[in-house]
């Protein structure tokens, strides 16, 4: 009996010692579906890594950005793993704020889609690992196109989609010719609008960092956007962003919609969409040039330089962004639920192809986006639907408000662009880009 008690005591002490030694990784992430699913799979990681415990801090996107930016800039050390966007990755890696991601043969870094891998690399090293990624594309009602005798092709022009909108716009029947983002924000309406400006041949800044908001491409793109939405958009479009347009499309109220490729899995799901069997996909529309016509975004896991638990953080990131993780989600919830946009192997998988009717169009959009060459004239910045400089957030928010006002009829296009140019110049001068 005494021997049994001693053995049990030794075992208990050993377990307590192991628990005491276990490292707690604090992970900051965004409160969207794919990340919530990752948290639910925490026991799978902890079982395979008994010396590591995961502590999640889940925040809304705006709050997440604020918290992680403050923490990393002040070297606060509050988080060991951060969820960051494609916008932050090049800025923070250049500043030395992130540790390089340590990959091995099993991780297969060459399996990452080139556009995403390039966007997360600095001087040849990966500084954040992609969890899921997206581009933008045209999603439309094939039944309405067929009825109207319209063929949009694989990469239509904005003029073609406007003509389609004119033919099928029928507000009395509850169908609007075009749904697009109008809600102000650098990641809301400006994500779409920047791609429109790009394809009209415009840019945010020239090579001297001078804002270009009163240039002809900006005027042409914004005039087209405002006219299109005033004629064929839903009422109150200036308040709509991704979620509002998704709801409209799923209800059968949008003839077409240009937005994030991630939407394709929702509008083609009969559990969510009333028109799931009537949708088709094409590349984002073009105007003067195909350059920068579709955006590029990813949510990624990164390690701040201030983390003292880098080894454990590397293990977690390799696990959460691996081929094995994709397979784990597929096994647990089915292939329709896997995070997309990051790995060639996902798109090559026959089981994924069966459920993802949008897969080919999504991958083509992501592959074609180039953050280092997204404008017709040469630009000094990295990014497709944003400029990867710290000042861009304030500029993007301010310009977004002006574009939303023009769409709502509270301002003319010319006045909105003039005000935008003034505020952009003020921010760039204040930051010391030029006098």
From TrEMBL:
Keyword Amino-acid biosynthesis: no
Compartment list: Periplasm
Species whose genome carries this gene: Pseudorhodoferax soli
Protein name: Sorbitol-binding protein /mannitol-binding protein
Family: Belongs to the bacterial solute-binding protein 1 family.
Cleavable signal peptide: 1-22
Main location: periplasm
SUPFAM superfamilies, per the entry: Periplasmic binding protein-like II (SSF53850)
The entry's keywords: Signal
Pfam family, one: SBP_bac_1
GO terms for cellular component: periplasmic space
InterPro entries cross-referenced by the UniProt entry: Bact_solute-bd_prot1 (IPR050490), SBP (IPR006059)
């Amino acid at each position: 009996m005494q021997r049994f008690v001693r053995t049990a005591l030794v075992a208990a002490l050993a377990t307590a010692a192991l628990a005491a030694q276990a490292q707690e990784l604090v992970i900051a992430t965004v409160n969207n579906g794919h990340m919530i699913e990752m948290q639910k799979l925490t026991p799978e990681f902890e079982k395979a890594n008994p010396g590591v415990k995961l502590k999640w801090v889940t925040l809304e996107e705006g709050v997440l950005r604020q918290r992680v930016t403050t923490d990393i800039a002040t070297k606060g050390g509050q988080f060991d793993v951060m969820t960051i966007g494609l916008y932050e990755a090049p800025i923070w890696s250049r500043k030395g704020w992130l540790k390089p991601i340590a990959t091995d043969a099993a991780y297969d870094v060459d399996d990452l889609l080139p556009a995403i891998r390039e966007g997360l690399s600095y001087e040849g090293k990966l500084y954040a690992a992609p969890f899921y990624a997206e581009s933008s594309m045209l999603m439309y009602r094939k039944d309405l196109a067929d009825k109207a005798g319209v063929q949009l092709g694989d990469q239509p022009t904005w003029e073609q989609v406007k003509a389609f909108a004119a033919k099928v716009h029928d507000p009395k029947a509850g169908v609007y010719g075009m749904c697009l983002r109008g809600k102000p924000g650098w990641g809301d309406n400006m994500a779409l609008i920047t791609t429109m400006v790009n394809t009209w041949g415009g840019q945010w800044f020239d090579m001297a960092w001078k804002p270009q908001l009163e240039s002809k491409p900006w005027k042409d793109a914004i005039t087209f956007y405002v006219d299109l939405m005033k004629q064929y958009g839903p009422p109150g479009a200036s308040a709509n962003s991704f979620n509002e347009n998704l709801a409209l499309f799923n209800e059968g109220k949008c003839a077409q919609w240009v937005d994030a490729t991630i939407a394709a899995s929702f509008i083609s799901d009969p559990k969510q969409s009333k028109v799931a069997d009537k949708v088709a996909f094409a590349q984002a529309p073009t105007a003067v040039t195909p350059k920068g016509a579709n955006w590029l975004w990813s949510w990624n896991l990164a390690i701040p330089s201030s983390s003292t638990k880098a080894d454990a953080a590397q293990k977690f990131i390799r696990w959460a962004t691996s081929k094995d993780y994709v397979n784990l989600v597929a096994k647990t919830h089915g292939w329709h639920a896997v995070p997309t946009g990051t790995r060639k192997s996902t798109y090559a998988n026959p089981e994924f192809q069966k459920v993802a009717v949008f897969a080919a169009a999504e991958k083509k959009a992501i592959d074609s986006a180039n953050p280092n060459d997204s404008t017709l004239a040469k630009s000094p910045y990295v990014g497709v639907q944003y400029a990867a400089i710290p000042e861009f957030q304030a500029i993007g928010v301010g310009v977004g408000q002006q574009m939303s006002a023009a769409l709502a009829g509270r301002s003319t296009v010319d006045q909105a662009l003039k005000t935008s140019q003034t505020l952009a110049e003020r921010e760039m001068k204040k930051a010391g880009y030029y006098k």
